[in-house]
Amino acid sequence: MKDINKLTSQRVDELYTTCLSQSEENTAVTIKGIILSATFSVANLNAVKEDIVELIMQLPEGAFKGSKDNGLSFLTLCHDKDEEQWTSFHACVERLMMLAMCIQRCVFLMPRNMWKVLPGGLPYLLFNTEDFTSNEMCACSDLENELSK
Description:
Helix content is 36%, strand content 13%.
């Protein structure tokens, strides 16, 4: 791993800013995070996709699909896999989560309307080192739609 791509608040902010859509692009994706909602340039996301993957691979092992935990609380993601705190800002964790969602490497494990029963009212997340399938990406969205009827 290049030192430039160490998981830090500064690096996440750089990638987030780089990927934000600067205009009414035809190829943009809008992601609704926990508090933030943002529109990202697909071209810019593709240009830094490997960098984003390198950053999420520095998260705790339990955050990943197939791990013994099979996902972690958003509250714990300010620590890296070495249990070192990489940021003091949950807003920065949210930006990393949104970038990972844009490239199909992160999903919410429960629908938004169920977060209130979780610690801090914040979601559990699951990351993957490979793209999630369309079915995996839609599963939580479908459950959320069913529960809101």
